Amino acid sequence: MEELGNSQGPRAEAVAAHCREFMLYMKEIQTTMREEIKSACEYRPFEKCDYSARIANEICCKKLEYVIEKMDAMQLNMEQSSNGV
Questions:
Q1: Cα three-residue angle 63-68-73, rounded to 5 degrees
Q2: DSSP reduced 3-state for 14
Q3: Is the pLDDT of residue 80 over 80?
Q4: Alpha carbons 67 and 73: distance in angstroms, whole number
Q5: How far is it, in rounded angstroms, from Cα 39 to Cα 42?
Q6: Rounded to two decimals, what is the model's pTM?
Q7: pLDDT tens digits, 3-37
Q8: How large is the average pLDDT for residues 38-44?
Q9: Predicted local distance difference test score (pLDDT) of residue 45
Q10: Record's superkingdom (predicted)?
């Protein structure tokens, strides 16, 4: 900082050293940010779980319940029809 406040102006080598140091810090920050963004994009919390299998199973169960309900209604309807004849 003393170099930058010199009345004759800073030496070119000092300015270059500060710029080089600044650019190294910027490169380090950029690399860290790139790695963080990449890891965030690759984050898949449900990748190794059985979520889709469980949902598919629940859907199949709901379909079976619906079919059973309709068959029970058909059976009731047939019984009522046969009793009426």
A1: 125
A2: helix
A3: yes
A4: 10
A5: 5
A6: 0.42
A7: 667 767 778 888 888 889 999 999 999 988 888 88
A8: 73
A9: 64
A10: Eukaryota
For residue 3, the tally of other CB atoms under 10 A from its CB is 13
Q: Is 38 left (phi over 0), alpha (psi -120 to 50) or beta?
A: alpha
Contact predicate 78/70, CB 8 Å? no
Taking the CA of residue 27 as centre, how many other CA atoms within 13 Å lie in the half-sphere pointing to its CB?
6
pLDDT of residue 84 exceeding 70: no
pLDDT digits (tens, 9 = 90+) for 53-76: 788 888 888 888 899 999 999 988
Span between the terminal Cα atoms of the chain, in Å: 107
Rounding to the nearest 10 degrees, give the CA dihedral for residues 73, 78, 84, 85: 170
